[in-house]
Amino acid sequence: MNLAPRQTRAGEVRGDHKVVASLVPLGGRVLDIGSEDGALLDHLVRERKVDGRGVELSQAGVNRCVARGLSVIQGDADKDLADYPDDAFDVVILSQTLQATREPKKVMSELLRIGKQVIVSIPNFAHWRNRMQLLFRGRMPVTKYLPYEWYDTPNIHFCSLRDFVELCHELDADVEKAIALSAHGNKIPVNAPWWVWNIVAEQAVFLLKR
Questions:
Q1: Which of 30, 135, 139, 149 is geometrically suited to a Cys-Cys bond with 50, CB 3.0 to 4.6 A?
Q2: 140 alpha carbon, distance to own chain's centre
Q3: Is 75:53 a contact under the CB 8 Å cutoff?
Q4: Which domains are assigned to the chain?
Q5: Residues 85-116 pLDDT 10s
Q6: CB 61 within 8 A of CB 37
Q7: SS3 state of residue 99
Q8: Nearest of 138, 23, 3, 132 to residue 77 by alpha carbon
Q9: What is the pTM of this model?
Q10: What is the spatial distance between Cα 161 and Cα 83, in angstroms, rounded to a whole number?
């Protein structure tokens, strides 16, 4: 279940998907968790020639993936990752899904166990627009990138980019690369400390290794 509300034209590759793909080695064995309609996995199979597998929570999403010719099964990141052996994949990807899991720390621990490298992309709840809505309106933020009201959001655990980096430290995971992005998936061309990205980035992609 991928929760990014980015809309793209038919055949157009999302910006954050391009960034994720740039971190995936050619021909690698890849597990994409939260495959949604298979857009990212399909891009990786075509452009990076990966041996790709996917896990998707919704049956409708699985059906869309299979219709693309992808190897995707129905599964729950909170429950089913324990079934995979250690180092089963060269890369495990969790794209825009961590905030919807019930136990993010446990899920991250499993990702680092079954993947030699892990790629995670997340929305940044500490973006300045969200801060302004909380400060001036006193209400939970609703933006183009986070379009849900508090009572109907599928997101369970919001975090900032700094929160996520702290979680990586707790899990003894090395952040090998971190790329701050706009809402449209464009790289933010700023060499800056985390506290700056934590304000101006709407999302980010992380390459991790345990």
A1: 30
A2: 22
A3: no
A4: 15-124+158-209 (3.40.50.150)
A5: 999 999 999 999 999 999 999 999 999 999 99
A6: yes
A7: helix
A8: 3
A9: 0.90
A10: 29
